[in-house]
Amino acid sequence: MHRCRPTLALVAALALVGAAHAHAADSAPPASTRLAFGSCFKQGRPAPVWDAIRGFRPEALVLLGDNVYADSTDPAVIRAAYGYLASDPGFQALRASTRVLATWDDHDYGEDDAGADFPARAESKRALLDFLGEPAGSPRRSRDGVYESYAVGPPERRVQVILLDTRWFRGSLTPRTREAEPGDGRGGPYQPTAAPGATILGEAQWAWLEGELGKPARLRVLVSSIQVLAEDHGWEKWMNFPAERERLLALVARTHASGLVIVSGDRHDAELSLLPGAGVVDPLTGARTANPLGYPLLDLTTSSLNSPRPWSWELNRHRVGDAFFGANFGTIEVDWSAADPLVTLAIRDDRGEVAFFHRVPLGTLAASAPPRTP
Predict the structure, then answer these.
(1) Scanning 4, 36, 287, 368, which has its CA 20 to 30 A from the CA of 151?
(2) pLDDT tens digits, residue range 333-373?
(3) Which alpha helices (H) appear in the chain, and where do they start and end?
(4) 269: nearest Cα among 307, 236, 240, 221
(5) Cα 88 vs. chain centroid, distance in angstroms?
(6) 149, pLDDT greater than 90
């Protein structure tokens, strides 16, 4: 067999081809998109979870609320709580490698279960935005509330992260009046309000959200500090404001916003809730599911980063499988290499091990097309 020695010209040509392929590989979008989520971090407690999140290598970490426990109307106390988090070595290492996005819940807002009547909300907002390094000209600085939206990835693989503010505008909660019944489990102090006009988001945020849902995206992650789908327990949740919950689902349906999933926090345990497609019979009530979206809706609850509560039962007719009671963070990973990209929602413990996951093809989260105009 004869061996041909390549000429210098051929060597140069092969080198250029190799360099071109290497450049194409470097510039090609990644085969997957990874996002991490967490809530309920108590400063002063060990937090190995930051190293676990860093090991997951997410494009962004989204803090869902109760990012610190300030529980104060004193701005100095609130800032000191954020300062503790900012100085945590594990969080510093994570922040150096990963973009950090955040909204708030009640304990970093300043007071347990507080809403629009919290007197120090403006000072608390400045503390959060300063912690995040929000620019002076940011819209978050000039408008009420801390809601915001971000895009991750190129247009053909865009993931939209919509951060809601469930505190600044929220009306008063209604105390529970009936006694707990056997089987209620950890029932909670609140019941749905009947007050006309009671709101979670406020009109300005509602108008903004409608505009965001009209933007193009392959996957939308709607971030709510409190659970959207849970109906049965008496703690904070969207169902304490039934008209607002119904309005949210109706808005997603009206805007034909495909590919939407929810991530929530607050509960100090982790679970996945599912609102099936319309027409499925509710096993508790015998009624058919009222879901106007045209596709199943998932709500991944991830809590707490380092302060989980002991096992205790809470009713949730929409829960899929069991709740997880260890320290945890949530993840969403989109595998774009499949013909129908696969979306995996998971809960991971503070070592990064998967506690449970749910995988769904992105195509099953497609909204029905809007009616054609004549």
Answers:
(1) 368
(2) 999 999 999 999 999 999 999 999 999 999 999 976 553 33
(3) 8-27, 49-56, 75-87, 89-97, 106-109, 121-132, 139-142, 202-213, 242-254
(4) 307
(5) 23
(6) yes
Q: How far apart are the first and last CA of the chain?
A: 72
Tell me how far apart the alpha carbons of residues 56 and 347 are, in angstroms, rounded to a whole number.
12
Question: What average pLDDT does the chain have?
Answer: 90
- Domain residue spans of the chain: 30-66+144-365
C-alpha span between 252 and 34 (Å, rounded): 24
Place of tokens 């965001």: 212
Q: What is the mean pLDDT of residues 182-200?
A: 91
Write out the two tokens for 287: 């009624």
Dig out the tokens for 217 from the structure.
């995206």
Task: Using alpha carbons, select from 162, 247, 236, 251 the residue that is nearest to residue 199.
Answer: 247
- Average of per-residue pLDDT across 223-233: 97
Torsion of the alpha carbons at 101, 188, 346 and 151, rounded to the nearest 10 = -30
The pLDDT of residue 10? 29
The single residue listed with the structure tokens 């000429």 is: 7
Q: Give per-residue pLDDT as tens, 284-342.
A: 677 776 789 989 999 999 999 999 999 988 999 999 999 999 999 999 999 999 999 99
Contacts of 147 (CB under 8 A, 6+ apart): 103, 140, 163, 164, 165, 201, 205, 208, 209
User: Which listed CATH number (3.30.310.80, 3.40.140.10, 3.60.21.70, 3.40.30.10) goes with 30-66+144-365?
Assistant: 3.60.21.70
